[in-house]
Amino acid sequence: MYVPLRQQPAADVLAELAEPQGPGVAGAGALLLATAASLLSRSARMTGRQPAYEAVSEEMERDAERARALGDRLLVLVDQDAQAQLRLTQARMLPGATAEEAAIRMSCVDVALQGWARLSLATLEIGVELAMLIDRVLRYGHPACLGEARLAARLLGVVTEALQDAIEVPARVASETASEAWRTEAGELVGRILPVLAALPAVPVTA
């Protein structure tokens, strides 16, 4: 039985990622983005506590809280990914000896594939907002507090590209209409994230 992520020690979470029944690319991507959100929250909160940055302290605190909320949503997606993969496995194991059974199995597989694809897309949707927060923190944050925000940006870039690739897995076996819709939506979301990351300010990071 899958134990929710919040109830597991960090070592168990990493071990779970190595297991076939654990979270896949979508879940691992959501977990990495949850880490990025926590790092970003730290950068924003540390900036807000700098005496010289009092003018942006309230905004930075709001950004820190928003990043933390996005992280909470991402952790839920990690758990949902493991559940979605289990549903897909169960659907594929349904009997298909007769035409009626085969049709039922195919219908169940399609539903499971849709749920699986939606997790990658939901993670990318959160990535769009996370990119905007990263941009704001890097533009207005204290240079000594930006190392974590830069790491968050790098994690977001890697995960974004990985999730776009991950969409291809369910898309290859889904209906043409569904697969094209997933690819289009993923492309639009990626197109809103990567340009923001490419245009991030080159702010020097100090110790």
Write up what this structure looks like.
This protein has 207 residues and is mainly α. The chain is 77% helix and 0% strand. The protein is built from seven helices and no strands. Helix 2 (25-48) packs antiparallel against helix 3 and helix 4 (99-140) runs parallel beside helix 7 (176-198). The longest helix has 42 residues, at 99-140. The N and C termini lie far apart (45 Å). The model has no long low-confidence stretch (mean pLDDT 86).
Map the helices and strands:
Elements: H1 10-17, H2 25-48, H3 57-92, H4 99-140, H5 147-166, H6 168-173, H7 176-198
Question: For the residues shown, what is the average pLDDT?
Answer: 86
How many helix segments? Answer: 7
> Major sheet: size, sense and barrel closure?
none
Strand content: under 5%
Helix content: over 70%
Concise account of the structure shown:
The chain contains seven helices and no strands. The protein has helices at 10-17, 25-48, 57-92, 99-140, 147-166, 168-173, 176-198.
Descriptive keywords:
207 residues, mainly alpha, 7 helices, elongated
